[in-house]
Amino acid sequence: MTEKQKHIRNFSIIAHIDHGKSTLADRLLEATSTVATRDMEAQILDNMDLERERGITIKARAVKLNYRADNGEDYEFNLIDTPGHVDFGYEVSRSLQACEGALLVVDATQGVEAQTLANAYLAIDNDLEILPVINKIDLASANIDGTRAEIEDIIGIPAEDCPAVSAKVGLNIKDVLEKIVTDIPAPGGSPDAPLKALIFDSHYDSYLGVVVYVRIMDGRLRAGDRIRLMAKGSEFEVVEVGTLEPFGLAKAEELSAGEVGYLTASIKTVGDTRVGDTITTAEGGADEPLPGFRDVHPMVYSGIYPADGARYGDLREALEKLQLNDASLVFEPETSIALGFGFRCGFLGLLHMEIIEERLEREFNLDLITTAPSVIYNVKLRSGEMITIDNPSKFPSPDEIDTAYEPMMKAAIITPTDYVGGIMDLCQDRRGIFIDMKYLDTTRVELHYELPLNEIIYDFFDALKSRSKGYASLDYELKDYQPSKLVKLDFMLNGEQVDALSFIVFEDRAYGRARRIAEKLKENIPRQLFEIPIQAAIGSKIIARETVKAMRKDVLAKCYGGDITRKKKLLEKQKEGKKKMRKLGSVEVTPEAFMAVLRLDDDN
Amino acid sequence: MTTDAVGLYIHIPFCRSKCRYCDFASYGGKTGADIDLYIDALASEIKGYKREERIRAKTVYLGGGTPSLLSPSQLLCILDALRESFDIEEGAEVTLEANPGTVSADTLAAYHALGVNRLSLGLQSIHENELKFLGRIHSYEDFLSSYTAAREVGFDNISVDLMYGIPEQTEASFEETLRSVIALSPEHLSVYGLILEEGTPFFDIKASLPLPDEDAEYRMYLLAIEMLGKAGYSHYEISNYAKAGYRAEHNSIYWKDGEYIGVGCAAYSYFEGERYGNPRSLEAYLRGDLRCEVEAVDRAAHRFEYAMLALRLKEGIDLGEYERLFGRSFTDGIEDRLDRFISMGLMTMAEGRLAFTDRGFYLSNSVMADIVR
Q: If you measure CA to CA, which chain B residue comes closest to A554?
């Protein structure tokens, strides 16, 4: 190990959502004087407004901190931030692989939660030294000893002398910094071995092209090197390397084993630099890539349409811009009879979907209509062919299907014991298969279920929260695809099928959901000049029906001299309203009504 | 400008008490002295219209409020002022709105002698309970005596206002009202569906009102058309019915894009390319505030209003005239929609006219929002 390596510490901060990860990161930056306090905007690691507002980190980022320890020596800390949500589990795991240690932040008022555990296990799997940090000790309800005990009992790592801090008020931050020096191992690897650099993130910059965030595991990396991305097989020439300073990139001569930094190589899209891929030199490179690379695939799909059809081009541009920095977002043009031109978009999960929708609306000022989220199904046809369905409209008719398969998730739910009954009912109701239940301590249990993703995306998280007064936490990952009785539910207005309303559902659920959506349609479709039959169907079989009665009366009885201006305004307003209407076949529906119908909520 | 004679409207914003559904500008509980002050203000406004060559008028309409609260001498003052400033045509229709119970035979005789040749009586219903709900101050008997007296003093052009959709009203009770009024054989009828206007006591309590359901209300509308049709009244406007030769000339000016001058508080005018209105507030009007809302009617607005108003008439819109006036076809680009409305039985197209059917009238706002541009 070189002298340089001995003075490097690479670590992540992991935590359950809202346990204060980003705030702790801020304090570390502040305490290492990397950022002057006056320049400090709270949580600078989360550099997207949305992240700051939601209090969660969406994209991993890294930053270099300089610290003079009590032993008088100078250290270089590389803090690699990780996304804090289940949708981004793979990114978390790659970020962890770039580290030797992890600060496990636990909220002293909440204790260990589902993602605390899931993240801790991920860190353990990656052979990281885990340094627990108990946070929020300034709050009256903080239970420091209890939290220590939980960390030891539930996760099984010593927490006796772990730092207890308040990141918010900046209490005991120094303890954390010293612990990083003493407890987290210096990075290994040999600067003289063939290059192996792990890509743990990337972002698009309009001047530099893609900026690739790397951890050098072995070897050296310099500008001018010809590099190869081992999984993708593509080659580039390095334009620039450097380190990741809090306020931007700092060019350097080289990066060598143990270091964290960036490279640019005139790469056009982030899609070319997959997280988890290994970079080596094109000549005399490493034989084997680093383990663990996985191509991530979207799990949830939804149709996104501009509320104003004329803004289709803007929507495309916006999606392209977001994709520059988010290789996991996929989209392709889609046409709906009801909604016009839009895009079928794939997301890692529901949160990812919500974030993209919000960014489209907020950053690009678009009004959107989104169809109900759908998961990916596999269908074996009678013909023996196997097809993948990411859009309900492509679902084959019942008589063509041999077997349909749906994604089954391994779900872990941690909840106070008081709510176990309600949550088990919920899981049962959502077709969950009970695996086991572990008491974490006397007050909390961890439940394991197999749950169809199809059910999880149907408002499961909200239902879970409401049944546990907000205390239960959820973590899940794909287990496998399992055979399931799936049907496509179609809706017809005035005899015409509305493609955007179709969705795939477990057969036993079809009746209830059909009835409910038909009712919602009835409530939300404004009365029109004619009666509108609403029908829900599986194939050609009608399973629910409702009727929107024809409008009875819409007339101004009196219109004399003084009424004319008013009457004109009334008509103009009515005309304006009509302009905003979406035509579903011959039926006019306000965008609001359409969204009300598409919005999924708990129908139990 | 136009050489056509105008209609004159005079607003009398006084009532004994205000009806519960009414959103017109009217004030209850005013005395004769208050009315005198108001007449002074009217007279000075009227004077403002006096020109070298007086503006010709073909109709005079005294509306309210309750114009029949005017004493004959007060009415004379107003008419004198009008004659002084306007050239009122020989044989002009002069209408006065009267509330049953506010007029005696003597007053009616005086009105008639002063030149009022058309009387509009607000009956609404022959049933006590319905009248009470509306907050009307008269009974059916009051109406009958006013009506008979009007006939006796020589009114040969009487219009009666009726209403359907009243709380507690049933199809049977409405039919009875229609039958009784048809038996009296007035020359003209206005039959309005009750509208709950915001700002009225009715609007605030509408959830608790025992209103007939919408299907019953629609059948009442059709019943009026049917019964009045059989009795020889033509349904010439959404809410108006007349025996041959007795259409309301003044009101027809509104629907046929004619000019009119309104005087008095809350009165509106459409004159020389502008729409304008006086303040609704009596105080403001008495202070001398006039023309508080002025709107120049440009070509686009004119086109829109023309079609919107013409479609209120049973004869509908004369497409040839529309094209001559505005240099463009009314139907261009909306043929599909028109075909749909015609096939739905809401409109008809015949002899160069596009018009609503009876059913179409009832949904006319929605349809017009689709076709009037």
A: B363
